[in-house]
Backbone:
């Protein structure tokens, strides 16, 4: 159902919940029951193993990152040996663990630059990293990958995704700028089934296990979030601990709700988020961290709202939100575009959306959508 708010049509999640939120109408119930009767346990085990191993590789590289490890892509964004290595490891583990299933992977990186003249040293560094990481997993007794094997593993991420069949969706390092800075980043892996996210895993090697802002005595970092449709969201330590169920903040009071946004000012309009926060009466300053670690932190209630408004013309990719969105929705939250429309992961690599991406709990959503619309109108009027 939509309500008119000025010229914008706003989908009222709080009236008709998304498919993840036990909708009442019969068509939604039918759809949901057909998905929830499916088990994704084997896929979940494989995804957790793949993301954890890739996290090991990334942690090793981040500890001693060399200047030569970081390159620039055509769009000027950074890519490192760890982005490539992580993609190769995830691709290898998924194919190995799920060899009986058809395999389709939509992933951020491709091997184009690594096949150029002069990239041999970088490729060799990646090959050694990938083989060392795979060898550290005692259940794999496979011969080491050749350079061609590594290139092929990276390139198995070339699928376009879509609304038919199953597709894995991977960001091997989400938040590469944070990774290079020594800050937050995530390995984000999700599974689409008939265009819908049914499973998501987020490995966040630098995220404290204790809630942000709370000092734990041990100060342990490294979280693994996982979610399967209809089964809730769980967090465990990347070092191995029992998963605990997590939930988004239950707050109904927007004045006490803190919000997350990008660390990088180029990734999101801070002006717009500040205007929205002011309208909601938010008192706390924004919590700015890189990557989908924001979705993980939101899923366990560290903050209550996530705001992301990229510059006009920037197209969001599915691997930047697929895992994070199910981690939040299965923890009881809502993820939508700035007009309240659910994100549609069935259209290939890109998300078509209005203005940006927001997330919070169901009770805060109506006030948040209203504040966003007012702020957008005021900004347009001031131009
Ligand atoms: N100009 C941009 N605007 C918005 N997001 C961007 C931009 N350039 C890269 N990104 C992507 O934004 C995400 C991280 O943003 P943030 O930390 O702000 O949430 C990453 O997925 C990053 O890609 P990448 O996966 O290559 O790091
Ligand atoms: Mg990138
Ligand atoms: Mg990304
Ligand atoms: Mg990335």
Residues:
């Amino acid at each position: 159902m939509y309500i008119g708010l000025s010229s914008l049509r706003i989908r009222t999640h709080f009236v008709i919940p998304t498919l993840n939120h036990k909708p009442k109408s019969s068509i939604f119930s039918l759809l949901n029951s057909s998905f929830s009767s499916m088990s994704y346990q084997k896929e979940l085990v494989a995804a957790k193993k793949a993301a954890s191993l890739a996290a090991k590789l990334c942690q090793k590289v981040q500890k001693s990152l060399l200047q030569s490890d970081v390159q620039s892509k055509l769009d000027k964004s950074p890519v490192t040996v760890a982005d490539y290595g992580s993609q190769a490891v995830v691709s290898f583990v998924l194919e190995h663990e799920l060899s009986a299933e058809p395999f389709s992977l939509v992933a951020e990186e491709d091997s184009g630059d690594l096949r150029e003249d002069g990239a041999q040293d970088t490729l060799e560094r990646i090959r050694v990293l990938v083989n060392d990481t795979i060898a550290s997993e005692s259940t794999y007794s496979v011969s080491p990958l050749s350079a061609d094997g590594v290139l092929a593993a990276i390139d198995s991420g070339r699928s376009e995704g879509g609304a038919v069949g199953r597709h894995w969706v991977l960001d091997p390092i989400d938040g590469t700028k944070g990774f290079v800075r020594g800050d937050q980043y995530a390995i984000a892996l999700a599974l689409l089934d008939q265009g819908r996210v049914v499973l998501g895993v987020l490995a966040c090697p630098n995220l404290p296990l204790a809630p942000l802002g709370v000092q734990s005595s041990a100060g342990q970092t490294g979280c693994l979030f996982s979610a399967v449709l209809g089964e809730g969201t769980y967090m465990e330590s990347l070092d191995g601990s029992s998963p605990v169920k997590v939930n988004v903040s239950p707050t109904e009071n927007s004045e006490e709700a803190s919000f997350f946004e990008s660390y990088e000012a180029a990734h999101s309009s801070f002006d717009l988020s500040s205007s929205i926060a002011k309208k909601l009466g938010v008192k706390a300053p924004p919590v700015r961290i890189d990557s989908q670690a924001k979705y993980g932190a939101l899923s366990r209630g560290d903050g209550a709202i996530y705001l992301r408004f990229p510059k006009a013309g920037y197209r969001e990719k599915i691997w930047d939100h697929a895992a994070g969105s199910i981690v939040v929705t299965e923890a009881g939250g809502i993820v939508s575009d700035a007009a309240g429309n659910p994100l549609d992961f069935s259209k290939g690599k890109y998300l078509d959306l209005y203005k940006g991406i927001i997330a919070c709990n169901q009770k805060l959503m109506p006030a948040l959508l209203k504040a966003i619309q007012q702020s957008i109108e005021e900004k347009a009027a001031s131009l």
About this structure: The radius of gyration is 20 Å. Residues 83, 108, 171, 173-174, 176 surround magnesium ion (ligand 4) (CB under 6 Å). The first strand starts at residue 2 and ends at 5. The mean pLDDT is 90.
